[in-house]
């Protein structure tokens, strides 16, 4: 009696049929079924945080808001305000930033901008981490009373912060944020968001000079601002002592997105 022989070709064919059947089962699975059974905890994921370089201008000086860490890692060191994304509260990264800023300053920042993202295995001792860094501008007067009552938060001169041993890689982020703010000062009105709601052109000019590290010719600066039609008069502010009152201004809608054709230093 002849015995049937199952040749290698038959084996390959049977395997292909089984694979095809399995693929068919997968294709019949709906997205809802896939998501229902998907287990996020089965995959390693990095830590996700946001950090914000919050600038303001006061007494002719550029200030940065720092917070002192109360927990490990890096406990006791000063750091940029930030924290973890809260999926139950935050619909997007900007929500996370504003939530953390409000916790530290008591106000919503009138201007925030995503600066950079940094991720690696060594920036945080807790493990592989990613931070999305932002720059933010707030008026000193709007939040100073709140900051004074938050023991772990403090406004510091930018140059003072540069020589501190900040937590994590926050010194690198701070320097990158400072450079971004300098570039913004050259071609936009964005720095005005670090001033009070109403400001004088002299205050704005002084802040821009601090940011670009050089003096600005007064007449050409005022002509530049007036021709752009980005500010509107609010009223006179009484001068200290015997000086003349100064006209105050506020930004118009649309100033945030405006860019000058020529840079300020050209």
TrEMBL record:
Ranges for domain Nudix hydrolase: 47-178
Signal peptide: none
PANTHER family: ADP-RIBOSE PYROPHOSPHATASE, SLR1690 PROTEIN
Protein name: NUDIX domain-containing protein
Organism of origin: Vibrio rhizosphaerae
